User: Fold these one by one.
Assistant:
Number 1:
Amino acid sequence: MQYEIKELPEVRVAYLRYKGPFGAAIGDFWKEVFTPWQTAFRLNGKVTYGVAQDDPSTTPADQCRYDACVEVAADYAIQPPAKEAHLPAGRYAVYAFQGTADQVPAAWGAFFGQVHADGKADEGACFERYPADYAMDPATGVFTADLCIPVK
């Protein structure tokens, strides 16, 4: 699996939290909860992020937390139900994913395994970064995103 090491800047985000089993339900959360909220607050056309707060292999499924985030300016007033977070600046292994939602867990597994096998993984949150012009092919369900893991 080919990936790049990149220096990423700190990013301020507004987020909504999903709690429960990872998988298809996260896609439903984006579609049914996050995207309507994002549209209502005129935050479309911005880079978005998905941040898994827990490792589903060690956390009970009903306790797993995932934050759907959108990048916001320093002076943007974040209003409830959204909360503020900052994705830290640093070195990240970045894998350019292209596929369908049901392929994401396997891609994460392979990528995480590779970065660990290479001895580069560091502590910190892993996240998905979706481009501001994000689009999913309606016929195939294929989309692109960067998978990002902090590295030493």
Note: The beta strands are 4-8, 11-19, 48-52, 65-71, 83-87, 90-99, 127-130, 143-150.
Number 2:
Amino acid sequence: MKILHVTAECYPVAKVGGLGDVAGALPKYQKKLGHTAMLVMPMYKTPFLNTHQWAVVHKGQASLGDYHFNFTIIREEGQSLGFDLYLVDINGLLDRPKVYGYPDDPQRFIAFQTAVATWLQSWKSLPDIVHLHDYHTGLLPFYFKHGYGFRRLENVPTVLTVHNAEYQGWLDWRNSSWLPAFDEWKSGLLEWNKTINPLASAIKNAWAVTTVSPSYLQELRFHSNGLEALFEYEKGKCSGILNGIDSELWNPQTDGLLEHHYHAKTVTAGKRANKKAVSENFGLNPDKPLFTFIGRLVGEKAADLLPDSLAAFLREQNGAANVIVLGSGEPEIEAGLQGLKGYFPANYDFYKGYSEQLSHALYAGADFLLMPSRVEPCGLNQMYALRYGTVPLVRRTGGLRDTITDIGDNGNGLCFDQASIGDILMTMNRAMDLYAQPKKMEALRFKMMQIDHSWEKTVSQYIDLYQSLIDQNKQSR
């Protein structure tokens, strides 16, 4: 079948979080199964753009209210990602270094979606499935069904994957002119709580909706930033499919970003060598257990609890453990984590920002990964940790609940229930007790590295879903 993914992120082109990792892997593994998988995203000014060759495949025109713009679709030559990658270039709107964070983000992503739909109209052979990712692409199902300019697309099945329901792309009705002309009798399919809500619209209009873990789907019916009733109402077309990880990219035996490679049988020596390398880089003693946090410093991740939790832990351990935090986000949290460096210079460091190389080094070198998230739709970090023999310390929520079971229940990590300083501190102390038992630690690492969370295991669930929609489409025509 012919599958087109539409997304705002895709690793390694442009990545902010887990959405980028998923978008960069899912089409590749679908193509390995023999399907024609493609992906289209905005053309940002990232290093990837200048280090690859491109061919122009389409030029078109569209409008954003009174603003008429030209757009160009370019395709990466050589399929370096393992599938056809298309970028949408809209001069002045999309060609910027950052993915998000601009005051005109609503206009940027509406223009992107309008350009994609306009381009699709010109295809001789339409896709069998258009797979949309998060709110940045959420208006497309409505365009296809009720946009006057896209009648040719109304029978193309659409699948929406909700990677994070906290972000919904709210838009005041005063700005409805930014959208292409549509059947105003259907305007209720754009709305939720008296605003245009792209995520809600996608849930209403897409043929099927998936979430990135089964537990997250259940949680959304009770906690989804205002969409609880909608998820309950539409539950019949929703399913939870656990994300996978790219086992070729995330493989400690071949990882090109690591100084020292290892596998399950050499995990103890391999991790010791990588911990020594990363510890020397940060001026820490490699003979001590190393804890790490890798991620966005936002309330969703419970990162606001980190400064006080880590301070209490390091004070209590009195030099017996090391901690490295890698991430960026809310200035107040960054300041708190930066401030800890002055109090614990021999046992703590904070790298503000994101480094792909350092993240791989930390997964390989750290003994424990902390994930106290309040919201974690799926979580990939804990799967990377398992793959690299690093024990996850997780709060039971979303995908963390689906992938990590406490060692007290013969599981693969350490779990806690509350996003609180007390629960974080208790779990880190449990980790210290575990570290003091080398044989138990080695057996756990070996066990973790045997777990298969690769895309090969889960991609067939998407194919089955697509096929059911294609069959449904044939029956209804």
Note: The mean pLDDT is 96.
